Amino acid sequence: MTSTGFEPLASAFHIDTLSLGDAPHDIAGLVLGTERSASTPLEFWVYVDPQHYLQLDDVVHVRSPLPDGQLIDVYGVVDEVRATQEGVRFASDVALTRAGVLPAETSVAAHVSVTRVEPEIFVPPLPGQAVSRATGIARDQALFFDQMRTRIPLGTSRAGECVYGNFDFLNGTRGAHVNISGISGVATKTSYAMFLLYGLLEGSALGNEAASARSIVFNVKGEDLLFLDRFNTTLSDGDRDRYAALGLPARPFGSVAFFAPARRGGKGAATVPDTGARMEGVTGFYWTLREFCSEGYLRFLFADADDDRSQVGYVVDLVTTQLRGAARASRGDRPSVEIGGRVVTTFEELVDAIAEQTDPDLGGMWASRAAAGTVHAFLRRLEAAAPHVGHLVRGDAQGDDAAHRVDWSRTQVTVLDLNRLHDRAQRFVVGVVLKRMFEERLASGHSRPLTFVVLDELNKYAPREGSSPIKDVLLDIAERGRSLGVVLIGAQQTASEVEPRVVANCSFRVVGRLDAAEAQRSEYGFLTQAARARASLLKPGSLILQQPDIPVPLLIQFPRPAWATRPSEAEEPQQDALFARFRA
Predict the structure, then answer these.
(1) Where are the alpha helices (DSSP H) in 210-295?
(2) Are 260 and 274 in contact (CB under 8 A)?
(3) Is the pLDDT confidence value at 509 over 50?
(4) pTM of the predicted model as reported, rounded to 2 decimal places
């Protein structure tokens, strides 16, 4: 048998019997002590046994003695591996070595970033100490899983082991919020956001609170989220095994309501949802003219983050005050409003009425303190919004019918399908719904039940520059939502384009594939240099995650959705019912 050079060392340090508790560990190598690869309390290099290997993301453990004989347990994660030929000087020597002309030895070394030291005596592990892969109890200690009071499944390692997160940093106890970044179509941002939500609702972390927890999901791209309640017929046995490894059932969301904008048209269209792939079980939503005026929703038509520079926001505030007064003065409980002695029944009529009361050229006095040019700019933008938002604000409903309102109180998950709306209309809906939700939580004064908000394209609603009503609401959620039980799961292609205060308040940072230049931005300072390079190579289903308990980012993978993401994957409703009875 060929000698590896490990036999004497194994005998000297008893690395063949190294164990933690009752779990023996396979020895992978020895702590290096060369000048270039010196060991420090926070990082060290490992000479890898030629009969073994260490790869990126492996969790390792080394037990190192102090002068008084006390043993220090040092844990870490492999974040770099390199192979070199010892005894050669020039690039061409590799060919000579391969031909047997030059004697040389190939060696592999792995760099380890320290994650935990027990007890906390920060001294470097001594060169020559045996390094083993951490499994079982040792892995839980290395990644602080043993100290997490309540754990949530975040995904699996590449070896298929579960990676957990500390629920205290998501439920508001010690922190809240998740931010996900990555290139569109590759980074699977929405897929992971929904998997994370599924793990929260279907896992054990929420306990008895799961039934009362609520979530609002804004679907702004495609109609992938209109089938969360249907089984994915393409799910493989391997996918089901991955769910089982995470302690989760492989099934669709159990309590879901779907809403889509009401279709354009007359009174009958107000109850018909504007969807394509699915209409059954989807409720059409809109707001009445009276609600629009009394609740101050006008400002969300000007949510393009430049009101602070144009002074248009001042006119918006003046007109909003006048509309509230008109709504209060309107007689009865009709959805319409009276402005200047005229009953307004459509959004187009409302725009005309506002112009009559505001335009100085027509004798309007609502904004008499503002410059004429500013008023005209306000009216131009209002008129431009009318074709895109008019069908969402209606005065043709009968009485104060609540059926048209988005109601997230009845089911665990409420999906708002906005993908067919113009960008301006999407901003309006997101702003109005978040405002109403946050005001309800403020009024309640309680942090339970938890409410999760899933919002893609966060950079559009909370951009880095400028201000807007939607951005103000999202800042409130990011900074005060923790105390009110509101958790934001936001996603965007580039975190560098999002308001820094929103990102900074997120306890969990997740990165899918990134553009190489974007990965170098300061917003990704939590990534190691090696992780930044890997971010440009990640495949769908693989992400890099940073959480407060663990000092280094971890690569995670998550299974394919157990729920359908397109009509071709969806189980027929009748079969869904059979599965439901079977589960019961």
Answers:
(1) 237-245, 289-294
(2) yes
(3) yes
(4) 0.88
Q: Is 36 exposed, middle or buried (0-12, 13-18, 19+ CB in 10 A)?
A: exposed
Q: Which residues contact 120 (CB under 8 A, 6 or more apart)?
A: none
- Model pLDDT, residue 11: 37
Q: Residue 171 — very low, low, confident or very high, per pLDDT cuts 50/70/90?
A: very high
Instruction: Tell me how crowded residue 82 is: count the other CB atoms within 10 A of its CB.
Output: 12
- Under a CB-based contact definition with an 8 Å cutoff, are residues 455 and 433 in contact? no
Task: Kindly write down the DSSP assignment for every residue of 115-153, as one continuous string.
Answer: EEEES----PPPTT-EEEE--THHHHHHTTGGG-SSEEE
Nearest to 288 by CA among 246, 322, 334: 334
Residues 311-368 pLDDT 10s: 888 899 999 999 999 998 887 778 888 888 888 889 999 999 999 999 988 888 998 8
As a whole number of angstroms, the distance between CA 314 and CA 317 comes to 5
What per-residue confidence (pLDDT) applies to 541? 87
Q: Is the pLDDT of residue 93 over 60?
A: yes
Q: How far apart are CA 155 and CA 542, in angstroms?
A: 9
Number of neighbours of residue 351 by Cβ within 10 angstroms: 18
Residue 171, burial from CB neighbour count under 10 angstroms (0-12, 13-18, 19+): buried
Question: Nearest-CA neighbor of 20 among 137, 183, 195?
Answer: 137
CATH 3.40.50.300 residue ranges of the chain are 151-255+411-583
pLDDT exceeds cutoff 90 at 186: no
Q: Distance between terminal CA atoms of the chain?
A: 59
Classify domain 151-255+411-583 at the CATH superfamily level: P-loop containing nucleotide triphosphate hydrolases (3.40.50.300)
- What is the Cα–Cα distance from 520 to 535, expressed in whole angstroms? 10
* pLDDT, position 500: 95
579 and 254 in contact (C-beta within 8 Å)?
Answer: no
Note whether 540 and 560 are within 8 A (CB): no
Q: In whole angstroms, what is the distance from residue 83 CA to residue 29 CA?
A: 14
For the stretch 429-459, pLDDT in tens is: 999 999 999 999 999 988 889 999 999 999 9
Pairing of strands 337-339, 508-511: unpaired
